[in-house]
Amino acid sequence: MNLYRPIYHFLPEKNWMNDPNGLLYFNEEYHLFYQYNPDADHWDTMHWGHAKSKDLVHWEHLPIGLHPSLELGELHCYSGCAVNDDGVPTILYTSVGEGERSAADGPEQWLATSRDGMASWEKHPDNPVLTLEAHGGMTIKDWRDPFVWKEGNIWYMAVGGIHEGKGCALVYRSSNLLQWQFLNKLCEGTEGIWECPNFFKLGDKHVLVYSPGGQVKYLTGTWKADYTFTPEISGALDANGFEGFYAPNSMIGPDGRRLMWGWIPEADRREFKGNAGWAGIQSIPRVLSLGADHTLRMEPAAELQMLRRNGIQLDEKRIVSAEEPLPIRGRALEFTAEFQLESDTPAFGIKLLRSPNGEEETVLTFDPANGTVSIDRTRSSLADEPNKSIVSGELDFASESDVKLHLFLDHSVLEVFVNAELCLTARIYPTLASGDGVSLFAADPKGVTMRTFKGWEMASIWE
């Protein structure tokens, strides 16, 4: 039994994977590209891996989509996007070499197309389609990760970068995807870099998502006639930083939903060798929407329900002890639960991957008094190497009457959704094969009322 390799999160058969790229629905299939090193389980020589799915859940590995064109001075095919240009699948990505073509000083935006249903790709002979010269006298560093969309007959592109020491997103337009005009600096922040910008409309607002080398941020606001974006609301896509959920990318599904995947890195394993030979997974697909207050809402895609097996359902009860074992065990599980909040509700939560004597366990805790939700990994592994820090996010319990939990455990990854407004993602590396227990707890005998609880074992997406 492999204690660490997920069975219902996407990952390649071996070697290194990072950012999701080129998300596209084409010919009734979902396509996922991703940053990939085909030669080792560490970052280097970036290619575009490729997979497809008919149902958003079960995936088929395909041949590598993009290879670096070494003969043209290209060493890496960095992140980007894919669009449907009147029936022609088209990739736009950042091409990187060395020296004057380095990632910091000389990246270029390149284009590739497919004429055989996305089985193979041809880079355009006129590449690059956009260079740093488009900015005139502006000096932009680390310019990368194009995100393209269409409004009417006009294509728009957002690209991340650094201007005068500040992370920013810049915006361009084109009528044909080949000739681009720089429009403006879309938005900038205080961080040192912005990577993988996504810019899209939800409801009556626009949303800008960016990855600043740490916690992934979002802004909702107004896109103005001068092509600048004015933020009105800000937040985080995930409570964890680079180690948990990073460089997300999104697409419009055939039903109009905004779907997003994020890279879940392997950084927290550090020198741990239990899962050597592969590194990095993709998150489960998240569905994005806007709340009435224009904050971002995030929920797991409903299609994942087809993986549920051997479900349990518990009646309402009061949780009053430090250990209330549940009649379900495993390393690939999904839970939904609802807890009633009262004025004096103590800390409460759920223990996962618990060994019989408690030597190993990962603890999800809701703490109304301190306004936090946390994943405590202090005892998640008997191995010394993995990161065992606590991942914590803030939640305004005072404004909630109930806490709604949706949790996904898949061997070495834990994804938690709380009230569709807070997400926490963490990697865990337990060593004991016997550690598959699950229990609820309350930190004080005053307890908490569990209104509902449902749980399922989860099947593999490769079956």
Sheet bearing the most strands, described?
Answer: 7 strands, antiparallel
Q: Tell me the distance between the termini.
A: 16 Å
DSSP helical segment count: 0
- Fraction of helical residues: under 10%
Going by CATH, the homologous superfamily of the largest domain would be Glycosyl hydrolase domain, family 43
Tally of extended strands? 35
Main attributes?
35 strands, single chain, glycosidase, 463 residues, Jelly Rolls, ConA-like_dom_sf, Tachylectin-2, Chain A, Glyco_hydro_32_C, 2 domains, hydrolase, mainly beta, Glyco_hydro_beta-prop_sf
What is the secondary structure topology, with strand pairs?
Layout: E1 15-26, E2 29-37, E3 47-53, E4 60-66, E5 76-85, E6 88-96, E7 108-113, E8 122-123, E9 140-151, E10 154-163, E11 166-174, E12 181-188, E13 195-202, E14 205-211, E15 217-223, E16 229-236, E17 246-252, E18 258-264, E19 278-279, E20 281-282, E21 286-290, E22 296-300, E23 308-314, E24 317-319, E25 324-325, E26 332-340, E27 348-354, E28 362-367, E29 372-376, E30 391-394, E31 402-410, E32 413-418, E33 422-427, E34 437-442, E35 448-458
Parallel strand pairs: 1-19
Antiparallel strand pairs: 1-2, 2-3, 3-4, 5-6, 6-7, 7-8, 9-10, 10-11, 11-12, 13-14, 14-15, 15-16, 17-18, 18-20, 18-21, 21-22, 23-35, 24-35, 25-34, 26-31, 26-35, 27-28, 27-34, 28-29, 29-30, 31-32, 32-33
Protein name: beta-fructofuranosidase
Domain Glycosyl hydrolase family 32 N-terminal: 9-300
InterPro entries: ConA-like_dom_sf (IPR013320), GH32_Enzymes (IPR051214), Glyco_hydro_32 (IPR001362), Glyco_hydro_32_AS (IPR018053), Glyco_hydro_32_C (IPR013189), Glyco_hydro_32_N (IPR013148), Glyco_hydro_beta-prop_sf (IPR023296)
